[in-house]
Amino acid sequence: MTARTLPHDLDAERALLGAAVLDPAGLDAGRAALPEGGRTFYRDLHGKLWNALAELRDQSAAWDEITIKEWLTAAGLWDEIKGYVGLGGLTTCCADWRRAPVYAERVRLLWLQRQAANLAWHAHRAAADSSAKSGDALAACAEQAAELQRLLADAAPRRAGSSFADVLGELLNAAEAGRPVVKTLATGCELLDESGGLACGEYLGLVGSPGVGKTLLADALTLGVLRADADATAVGGCCAAAYRLPRSRGRKRRGRGCITK
Questions:
Q1: What is the CA radius of gyration of the chain?
Q2: Contact, 206 vs 217, CB < 8 A?
Q3: Which of 48, 97, 115, 161 could form a disulfide with 19 if both were Cys (CB 3.0 to 4.6 A apart)?
């Protein structure tokens, strides 16, 4: 199974930081397009550096590599930056600081898309939850979806972000209508079904030491789903996977397993 990575563009982030280092006007232009500040960056170090440069800009008129290095050293960031690419490595990523708004818009759009993906995940979990708190969670997701839908439509009215806005709009409409956002499958296991069952398209891993019953449980869950819902394979498929934990060297492991989603 290949893990899906959330939307991001490290080259655009480095180019934006390079524009800021090259000229304070590049930082100003980027800040105008990034009202949320450093948290819009995918890489944590990039966000810390952006916030540090913004603080320096607010407190000092001087702007050169020596001043920036001293500021980052005082902030405890220089060792990380030096071991990463250094200031020179960032400036080479940007041919012209005047393109800072373009880089900033790209960084912010991808941040909004990551927010949309995270919100969709929380809504997915809330929809599969059969507890009394599910309705409140879905209502909160719907409220956030409405705001994200507006931000995405403003950020990319004719680009990829609009598709995320459409998805969030469907989520909002489904929550308001009281419809389940995702289809869940019964497994025949009362404890698991009472907690929401299995959601279509969700990955379920059974992890444990050898001999604890991973394969047996995976087979039982698969058969339970097929018995409870004959159309399970047609609405998204049912797949079970079991993994064996490696043995510890020099000592025995107790048989123990867990279910992880």
A1: 24
A2: yes
A3: 97
